[in-house]
Amino acid sequence: MPSFDHFALPVANYEISRDWYVQVLGLELEFDAAGRRTAAVRDADGLTVFLYESKAPPEPAAFALWLRVQDVERMHRELCERGIAFSHGPQKVEWGYGAELRDPTGYRICLWDEQTMPKS
Predict the structure, then answer these.
(1) 48-106: per-residue pLDDT in tens?
(2) DSSP string covering the chain, please?
(3) What domains, with CATH codes, occur in the chain?
(4) Is the pLDDT of residue 114 over 90?
(5) Interatomic CA distance for residues 45 and 34, integer angstroms
(6) How far apart are CA 39 and CA 8, in angstroms?
(7) In whole angstroms, what is the distance from residue 74 CA to residue 104 CA?
(8) Cβ–Cβ under 8 Å, residues 25 and 67
């Protein structure tokens, strides 16, 4: 079966987005191509997201990312302690159970974990 390897995500400012995905979500910086206003971040499973600066990123409401974490309650608590704002904390929502926040461009980031999802 094929598996996704990478995808490109247009962002309003690639440096701000790069730092946010690394510092807030804990993704690994794979590379930074400043001349192309592009950075790549990678998750624990090897999926790479190319963050490229675009003069006209798509409507942020039209795109969402679901990020599996070890413990959504703990990650929510730790990020809140660091002053990161959430759209809502861990709760039952239409897609299951989790917390939601927005990245610097405004894309919806949905955090969930394998333990609480089946119970929702």
Answers:
(1) 999 999 987 678 888 899 999 999 999 999 999 999 999 999 999 988 899 999 999 99
(2) -----EEEEEES-HHHHHHHHHHTT-PEEEEEEGGGTEEEEE-TT--EEEEEE-SSPPPGGG-EEEEE-S-HHHHHHHHHHTT---SEEEEEETTEEEEEEE-TT--EEEEE-TTTGGG-
(3) 1-56 (3.10.180.10), 58-120 (3.10.180.10)
(4) no
(5) 25
(6) 10
(7) 22
(8) yes
